[in-house]
Structure formats: structure tokens, C-alpha cells
Amino acid sequence: MTVTAQPKAKSTWVRRHRSALLGAAGIGVLLVLWQLSAELDIVDPSFSSSPVRTFDAGVQLFATGEIWGPLGATGYELLWGLGITFIMGIPIGLVLGRSRILHDMTEPIVNILYSVPYVMFLPIIIFWFGLENTSRIIVIVWAGILPLIINITAGVRNLNRDYSRVATVFCTPKLKFFYAIALPATLPYILAGVRLAVGRALVGAIVAELFLASEGLGYFVQKQTSNFNVDSAMAGIVLLAVLALLLNGAVRLIERRFVHWAGAQ
Amino acid sequence: MADKALVASGLQLTHKTRRGLTLAVSGLDLHVDEHEFVVIVGPSGCGKTTFLEAVAGLVPVAGGELTLRGKKIAGPGPERSLVFQQASLYPWRSVLSNVLFGLEMQGRLTGQSRKRAHDLLETAGLSHVVDKYPHELSGGMKQRVNLARALATDPALLLLDEPFSALDAQNREILQDELLRIWQADAAEKTALFVTHDVNEAVLLADRVLVFSPSPGRVALEITIDAPRPRGADWRRSAEFLAYGDRIIEALRHPKPEPRSHDDDGTAHDRDSTTKGKVHLGATAP
Question: Which of B76, B75, B9, B35 lies closest to B193 in space, CA to CA?
């Protein structure tokens, strides 16, 4: 019984994680090609590094502790930036979704702020707030908050009419309606907005660090590249990718826990 | 005669369309007695659903009077419950939590009301899915939850808006039988107002059938269904059952609104000759 069951179980495990496995295989193939290109002198490793050299540089960065400063600085900015984004963005989105007047009044402004590349305002932001953390956090909030607001507003405005009808028939008080129906019904939109905001905030953080060159992972990578230390620069980029994947994974986990019902609708 | 629970007199209801307000119901007079099961049958768009929504408190009264136990209906109330045409369950709530929704919103969650909800789930054959979510249920199961949710608040008047119209024929029959069973099992045999376009459904369920004329709706025919309860498969296949159905279908095809005191426009008659009522024959038609 167990003899026949074992290979069957294994094959279902493979089938279930098929896309993840294929994704990992894709990355593997890319790394092998990169390594081969460097080994066979198709590209110059001193300009383009190689997986092995990047890995070594990464280990070195942690061993000397050199990376902790930039990593901490970026983490600190992101924590504040995303914190402010969520605390301000979620209520603003909910209110704009409920109030027609406020929505119509702010819609053009929100759209302009969302469509104009915020990078253009960086010099002005530096004028106003200097080169320190404040400016970087403002850039992160600017990058992240608009997709969050737009998503939540759309979610509240698209609230299923049946939800309100059922609530009315069963005599739901206003406040209860808000947290028992409007909030859970909008949660998928809120979390989708959070996911977008996290991605854009990360870009905002790095852009800010490149412009306001003083600390952080973005600045670190730029500095290493200017010093022709491509291995360390690549290690920094890999670290950034890992950070992005972790943040994304965290939001996905929250989505799976709280809005498991939304996908099957 | 029993006490009157619901009374409409000279009732006028409107609904919004792109061109403005249209009359859905005009000069409607009807009543529902306590513990009576009344079914309204009518063609699509005759205003029967608007009337039901007015009783539920979802649609404001535009003219005339609509009272429940002597009190004017102005908005929804905990003594009324509506079983929706679409199950309209909250997808983030489990089956149990959906059934408890009304009690929770009305601040009436007690040990006793919880027990009532659990008993209802049991009666409706839902005890094995209490922890499941709506997206895991079939259409028939969802409608059972919809029904249990409406009964959980122990309403004096149960309103049902074509609750089985979206189901396949087989499921519809099963649910109709279950509704009868649940209605009879529920302690006080509640007063029920049921709206449908299915003639067989009306004859099966009703103590009294009201046939609505095309828009603006009014009562074109009133038939008391004189058959003992509990009703089951025998009743569905009896000759009387078919005879009642024929009379209703005849009234739907040639609506002759009785002249009434509130008759203040002649448009209804003009429409009668041009609009043919859409008659739906259920699966049990021979």
C-alpha cells in the first residue's frame, strides 16, 4: 500500500507546485547562462559580474557588516513611508468612495498626481525638505499612496447593490454597516491597493536614494557601480529583489488569510 | 375571518427609470390575513416585486396607504424579513454567520436566538455546511441559507421575492416542498407574502392567489386555494391543482381588472389589449 502510494504522492506534490518549480527553473537557466557567458569571456566579468562572484560579494558584504547601514536606512524609510501611506491612504480612499462630492472634486487632482512622473518634483522636494529622511519618505508616500487611494475608491464605489439591500432589510445601523459590510466588502480592493503601493514605494525609495545620494541601498548600488565594484553592486541589487519578494509575499499571505472568499466569486 | 395583518388601500408606487418616475402600482387594494400564505402572480414588470419591496420598506409609498398590523410602513423593520431573488449572501461570512446576520445587526444575538438559528439550519438541511462559505455552495443550498437568514429573526411577516426562479426545475421542486415543510414546522405558521411568475408554484404554496394585471399592477383575480396541508406530491398531481392553474393562466392571458373605486385612469385597459402576460409553466405541467 505505502509502496504504491509514495510515488503517487510525490507526483501530486510536483503537480501542485508546478508553476513555482518552473519559475525557479527559469531563474536557474538564466543564472547558468550568465555564469557561462562570464566563464567563456563572452562578456567581461569586471563589468557584468557573474552569479558566483555576486554570491561571494554578497557573503563578503554581510561578513564585514558593510551592508547593514544601507539596508537599515532603506528599511527605515520604507517602514515610515509605507506606514504613512497606509494610515493616510486607506481612510482617504474609503471617504472618497462614499462621498460623491469629495470624489468628484478630487478626481482630477488625484489623476494628475498619479499620471505625472513624481520624479520631476524631486528637485523641488529637495528645495523644500532638504536631503534628509523627510524628503525620501515624502517621495515614498507620493509613489505609493495614489494607487492605493484609486483602488480603494473604486472598490467602495463598486459596492454590490445587493449587499446594501440586504443590510437595509435587516435594519443595519450606519456604523455597523461601515465595519460589518463596507469594510470587508472592500478588503480585496484595499489589499490589491496595498500590493501596488508596496511595489511603487520600493521604486520610490530607490529613486529617492539615487537623487538624494547619501545613504540607503540605492545609493550603495550607485556608489559601488561608480567605483567599478560591479560584484558588490549586483549583490545589492539581488538583496533589493529579495526585499521586494518578501514584501510582496507578506501581502499575498494576508490576502490568502483574509480574502480567501474573493477569488471564487 | 382572521385578523388582517397587511393592508394596502389605494396604494400607489413608483419606480425610477431614465425617463423619470413610472407608475409601478396604481390604486392597489389588497390584504393579507394573519397566518395566511398569499402568493402574487403576474407577468414580468407588473409591479409585483415593487409592491413586495414597498412592504419590505425598500421602496417608499407614493400614495394611498400601506399598513402592517395597523401601523404605517415607513422603511424596513425587524418584524419583516425578505427572501431575496438572488441569494445575496455575504461572501466573507460563513453560512452560520450569514444566517445570524439579521440578529446581529438588530442587536438580538442571545442564546435563545442562536439556538433558533441552529434549529433552522437543521430543518433546512444545512447543519453539515454551517462553517462553509457561500462560494462553496450550490445554487439550491444558497437559497436555503437565504431562507434561513430571513426566518432567523423570527419575523411576523415573511416576504419572498421569486426565490426559486433562478434554480433548475428539479431543485425548484425540492425547495418548494422544503419551504412548505419549514413554514409548517415553524411554530406559529408565519404570515407569508410570496411573489412569483410560476403558476404551479402559486397553486402549490398558497392559501390565496392574487393575479396581478400588467403594469401598473392591480389585482385582476383572487382565488382561494382550498386544499388541506401538508401538501405534497399528491396535491401537485391532482385534477383540482390543474384546474386552479388553468383559471390563473386564463386570468393572466385575458386580464379583466375589476372596476374599483380608485380607478382613476383608463390606461390600464388600453394596455391590457396590447400586452400579453408572460406565463411561466413550471416543471410539473402535464
Answer: B35
